[in-house]
Automatic annotation (TrEMBL):
Main location: cytoplasm
GO molecular function: ATP binding; four-way junction DNA binding; four-way junction helicase activity
Protein's name according to its UniProt entry: Holliday junction branch migration complex subunit RuvA
One GO cellular component, as annotated: Holliday junction helicase complex
UniProt entry keywords in alphabetical sequence: ATP-binding, Cytoplasm, DNA damage, DNA recombination, DNA repair, DNA-binding, Helicase, Hydrolase, Nucleotide-binding
Stretches the record annotates as Domain III: 163-216
Gene Ontology biological-process entries: DNA recombination; DNA repair
Organism classification: Bacteria, Pseudomonadati, Pseudomonadota, Alphaproteobacteria, Rhodobacterales
Subcellular location: Cytoplasm
Organism: Roseovarius nubinhibens (strain ATCC BAA-591 / DSM 15170 / ISM)
Residues of the Helix-hairpin-helix DNA-binding motif class domain: 65-84, 100-119
Annotated function: The RuvA-RuvB-RuvC complex processes Holliday junction (HJ) DNA during genetic recombination and DNA repair, while the RuvA-RuvB complex plays an important role in the rescue of blocked DNA replication forks via replication fork reversal (RFR). RuvA specifically binds to HJ cruciform DNA, conferring on it an open structure. The RuvB hexamer acts as an ATP-dependent pump, pulling dsDNA into and through the RuvAB complex. HJ branch migration allows RuvC to scan DNA until it finds its consensus sequence, where it cleaves and resolves the cruciform DNA.
Length: 216
């Protein structure tokens, strides 16, 4: 990394400089200037502008992509939300319908925050599952040059006998990230798995969340 500013960094990729915009949290997580680093990137293409945005995880990148699809949320607002709440905070706020948490981000008003919750709530389990599955897969180490990396997740097909166990583990991790106690989360996931033993991770998360929802 050659340079760090308030909202972006400059990376040298084999002699070519790339200006990459990042959230506050991502900037804080990067090493000092002069050291090697790697980021997942997303390119915004407009008629008169090309902008790169950098993320430390594929989950952060996916939330940015989804947030950008909501009316009233541009790149600046998306990075503000991610910088204020972090990946886990965004997942928790959207899944629980806590638009007040989203409103804490600079430039995000009440109506926009409510729109984000309404449009993305159904997609939260899939993103949470992505985070759980990637928890043991660290960012690839950069080589002898600073490099902007955009690597798709490997889709290794599990054997049928292990798929349920893997899905349960990922669902449990996602619920733990949302703040549920390990005991109640494990119980809900087990119940959901008993009801639908062949369910994949997103379906298990949705079923477990319904079991954990207050009854009234």
């Amino acid at each position: 990394m050659d340079y760090r500013a308030e909202d972006h960094v400059l990376l040298d990729v084999r002699g070519v400089g790339y200006l990459v915009y990042c959230s506050d949290r991502t900037l804080q997580a990067l090493p000092p200037v002069g050291e090697h680093t790697a980021l997942y990137t997303d390119l915004l293409v407009r008629e008169d502008l090309l902008q790169l945005f950098g993320f430390t995880s594929l989950v952060e990148k996916e939330w940015h992509r989804l947030l950008m699809g909501v009316q009233g949320i541009g790149a600046k607002a998306s990075l503000a939300i991610l910088g204020t709440l972090g990946v886990e905070g965004v997942s928790r706020a959207i899944n629980l319908g806590d638009w007040n948490a989203l409103k804490a981000a600079k430039g995000v008003g009440p109506k926009t925050a409510q729109r984000v919750v309404n449009e993305l709530k159904d997609k939260a389990p899939q993103v949470m599952a992505m985070g759980a599955g990637a928890a043991t897969a660290p960012m690839p180490a950069p080589d002898d040059q600073d490099e902007v990396i955009e690597t798709p997740r490997a889709a290794a097909a599990p054997t049928p006998a292990r798929a349920s166990q893997s899905a349960q583990a990922e669902a449990l991790s996602a619920l733990s990230n949302l703040g549920y106690a390990p005991g109640e989360a494990a119980s809900a996931v087990a119940q959901a798995a008993d009801t639908a033993p062949e369910a994949e991770t997103p379906a298990l998360i949705r079923a477990a969340l319904k079991l954990l929802a207050p009854q009234g």
